[in-house]
Design brief:
Largest interface: A-B, 32 and 32 residues
CATH superfamily of chain A: Winged helix-like DNA-binding domain superfamily/Winged helix DNA-binding domain
CATH class of chain A: Mainly Alpha
Order of helices and strands of chain A: HEHHEEH
Distance between the termini of chain A: 21 Å
CATH topology of chain A: Arc Repressor Mutant, subunit A
Strand order of the largest sheet of chain A: 1-3-2
Number of strands of chain A: 3
Shape of chain A: globular
Oligomer: homodimer
Structural class of chain A: mainly alpha
Chain lengths: 110, 110
DNA sequence: AATATTACTACATCTGACGTAGTTTGTCAA
DNA sequence: TTGACAAACTACGTCAGATGTAGTAATATT
């Protein structure tokens, strides 16, 4: 199970990725991330919500009220253009990061 | 130029990797890292030295005095067995991390 | 002795990921 | 109508790693 600093800097990207496909809300985003990673990574609630707040503050996602069948109404989020742009940046940055860190790995020529 | 949080968690590994090949000291380790990445990443001095201190505290590297031709004498570092073990752990962890984060990247099928 | 150069040290700050705990808003059973 | 209950957050504090700014230490050269 991965956690913390290892993933640091990519929590936001995971959320953006999830919203790339369809609008969603907190709990569902978290579930989607868990599923995407096949259970290898599970984002903590606080991490998720603070990342969402940050993304909204930065204008990368926008909120709107949704319905629910039970319990408190959900807040849905949708990607903005700048959110989409940020995703692309992060994706490109990742390609570089991955290769650079890979230079320090031996016996790992996958 | 990569920096900070992107690389976070792998500074230690870069240092361990460098020492895998031969004993070295602060400035030279930093230089070696810059060269390994082809100038794509340059570790800040403070980052380097605090990582070195951490690794030594944890028994992953051991220090000994070295000579110098000019200026203050260097402190050389050598990998310990547990440092070598930590490197292997980090290397394996990286393989997983890389694949998991990769799941969130589109149009990036390199 | 003054200076230049290499090699660090000290210390404060910032940020992002968490832990623990509590709150809000709705449905439903009785 | 009210109280249990569940979903969906919110508040707040902590911690570690990377970094900025600045200063110190040791040694050879002039």
């Amino acid at each position: 199970m991965l956690s913390g600093d290892i993933i640091r800097g990519y929590c936001d990207t995971m959320i953006l990725f999830t919203l790339l496909h369809e609008d969603s809300y907190g709990y569902a985003i978290s579930k989607s991330i868990r599923e995407t990673t096949g259970g290898q990574y599970s984002m903590k609630e606080t991490t998720l919500y603070s990342a969402i707040a940050r993304l909204e503050r930065n204008g990368c996602i926008a909120a709107y009220d949704g319905k629910t069948s039970f319990g408190r109404p959900r807040t849905y989020y949708t990607l903005t253009d700048s959110g989409r742009a940020l995703y692309r940046e992060k994706r490109d940055e990742w390609a570089v990061t991955r290769d650079v860190i890979g230079l320090f790995m031996e016996g790992d020529e996958t």
